[in-house]
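Regression test attached.
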Amino acid sequence: MSWHLTPAQAHEYAHHRSDDVTAMSVEAHITRCAPCRDLLPDDEAWLARSWADLRDVVDRPRRGPVEFLLSRLGVGEGTAKLLAATPGLYRAWLLATVVVLAAALLAAHHLPRGSLMFAFTAPVVPLVGVALAYGRGVDPAHALTSVTPLSGQRLLFLRTSAVLVPALTLCTAAALLLPSARTPWSAVFWLLPALTLVAGSLVLSRWLPLGAASTVVGTLWLTALGALTASGGTEPLQLLAPQAQAWWAGALIALVCAIAWRVRTA
Amino acid sequence: MSTLSAPVHVRGLTRRYGTRTALEGLDLDLWPGVTGLLGRNGAGKTTLLRCLATDLEPSAGRIRLLGRDPERAAERARIRARLGYLPQNPEFYPYFTAFGLLDYMAVLKELGGRRARHDEVRRGLERVGLTDRRHSRIRRLSGGMRQRLGLAAALLGDPEVLLLDEPTIGLDPEQRIRFRGLVSELGVRSTVVLSTHQIEDVAALCQRVVCLDEGRVVFDGTPGELVDRARGHVWDHDGHPGRGHTAWRLADGRYRVLTPTSAPAGPGLEPVEPTLEEAYLLLTGAR
């Protein structure tokens, strides 16, 4: 190429028909040669779009590990952002969950009847997480977010999912390490009660703040355990026995229907 | 024009907290423009804004926002898409960046796909002068910057109804002037309600003033009408008029005296043109 572009070369370059070597030479040349730059057609709209695209790439906030993982799993970009942006208390809850489950495992392996600790706390762990996931008092930005179109039930259910997945995963992992866990099915005896308690708190949250609703449900669970222990006639573990699981399943189905009805009629 | 078509239409609004009544039988119609909401602490301003923001359900009465009923969930979501709200002393997730927080709010406001959302976030940051702090964590921002960030969040999506609760707290004079420019521009097409103790902001911005006291509207009119009510009640005096009067010493050594009743000019009392702040003090002090 001569040291100035011919109109033909400019035309080829502008229409992306130059080979790579020529295109690089042209680009190197036009950065310092205004007359040759003027040979190329101006497309202000394209320039503006390209600049905006570039700025968006440079300016875009870095995704956190949870948001990145959720996106890789196919969760929508907006939903991943909402799921990952949980209040600070959620992290504290996650840490507390790990500590409580580790303590329950230690008790199960080293104390007589130590498995009771896991059996009584595992159903409450997801409930506590849900209570800390949404609402005034636990979410610092609640005053800002509560008046957006997505707040209310949709955000509540999203946050509940964000809590349930790690809670159930951690509890299942801990349950599989119990000395009494012989099969995976025998290790998930706590699952239906846990889901039922969470569903109960979601139903109650129609009338009470979520934290208060979870407290009511958690208190009912502990009261039932306490009453059975105090009565002496019935073993508290009967609440989690295979024959009791049918009752938990029935209650869970009823509560899920109540939630679905609430969503439909809202 | 029917009051039902007002962007904000309130009839008989009552809100109780237990046995305490924060708002009692409020009637109000608000149109595009900036309306100042004045009142002492506990007068009901924040409760009114929270009810209008669909954050709080009324105990009794009816609210229509943008022609819709916020008691119905589907309509409430549509209202919220067109509403901006800056709460008093807004709190944020401290580990978010300014950009990240606005992006999160834009997702909650359903402001389109990522690219459209990011453009709106950049516009919001530009409007409140936080572009160069967009990647700073919120915990590293000053109080004034956080306040501006809250304002940017409220402005996302150009809301048709904008509710601002003490928006100028923590802003320096330069930022307040910028804020006034922004709000006055928005007031051309949006219905802006500005609850504040900063009477200068009301005087500078508002076409209409609503004063609340103990949950009731005690004045509703233009700033000029409020000032008119104070004429003949504001005086300058050479010495302190004595107890029982609202008075303070001016820079020139004389005293400004407010008299709730229209007292005739006495010896040494010289009538002066009231300011909006003095008119407001007379209104609330007289009760």
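Expected vs. actual: identical. The radius of gyration of chain B is 21 Å.
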